[in-house]
Design goal:
The protein is an alpha+beta fold. It contains seven helices and ten strands. Helix 1 runs antiparallel to helix 2.
Length: about 260
């Protein structure tokens, strides 16, 4: 078991409205001293997307504060259980708020939340907000999108080249606030010195492919450059390529 190790990761976050949207419906939060990172993307086209994403982040942080505030309590199995419970809290909170305020009916959100420990990262996610890890072998996507497009890819109905042009982009198969029950996907991944982790909304990944993301992140891997420069570069590149959605990123780098 690997207990929490505050200070072993450094963090940086950015969120930008993009070039098309009128408001930013993404929300994010980082607690560097405890190794927590949370990002949510309010569902585009729905009323109250910004409210839903904010509720998702707040509910997640509240659950983490209640159950993982003591470092000795934070081992991977415990972190995974708390993150799963947090996703259910967020789902219930969004639905309850929509019932109280009919103007917010239909709102929803994605969620990707991570707890960074001494030698691993525990993550849970719902929707198409993602988590990546960059290390020597290259960029690896650690989460699997809950989208119609991903299901078509998995079934072999569509090729990756066709997916890049698909009209199914952004059609979620799971999201917070959509139904009474939500099924978050858990994951536990190794972390070692120099690893660089990226949490992001689809406003980044719809604009940039993995090769471009890798090139933007590479200078910050292995302690070579400030995280802020890499985060700013990602946002700038997404905006240069159209910025069709809000763009949010959290970077976390493991110290030597």
């Amino acid at each position: 078991m690997s207990a929490s190790s505050p200070g072993r990761f450094e963090f940086c976050s950015r969120s930008d409205v993009g070039q098309v949207r009128k408001r930013n419906e993404d929300s994010l939060a980082v607690c560097e001293e405890r190794g927590w990172a949370v990002l949510a993307d309010g569902m585009g086209g729905y009323r109250g997307g910004d409210v839903a994403s904010r509720l998702a982040v707040e509910a997640t942080l509240q659950r983490l504060e209640r159950e993982l505030a003591e470092p000795d309590a934070c081992v991977p199995e415990r972190a995974a259980a708390v993150l799963e419970a947090a996703a259910h809290d967020a789902n219930a909170g969004i639905r309850a708020r929509a019932v109280r305020d009919p103007n917010l009916s239909g709102m929803g959100s994605t969620l990707v939340a991570a707890v960074f420990l001494a030698d691993c990262v525990v993550v849970t996610h719902v929707g198409d907000s993602r988590m990546y890890r960059l290390r020597d072998a290259g960029l690896e996507q650690l989460t699997r999108d809950h989208t119609m497009l991903q299901e078509l890819l998995d079934a072999g109905i569509m090729t990756p080249e066709e997916a890049a042009r698909s009209q199914f982009r952004g059609l979620l198969t799971r999201g917070l606030g959509v139904s009474a029950l939500v099924l978050p996907d858990p994951g536990t991944h190794s972390a070692r010195a120099g690893d660089l982790f990226l949490l992001c909304s689809d406003g980044l990944t719809d604009m940039l492919d993995d090769d471009v993301i890798t090139q933007a992140l590479r200078p910050a891997a292995g302690m070579q450059a400030p995280l802020e420069a890499a985060a700013d570069r990602l946002v700038a590149l997404a905006n240069e390529r159209g910025g069709r959605d809000n763009i949010s990123v959290i970077l976390a780098r493991m110290a030597a």
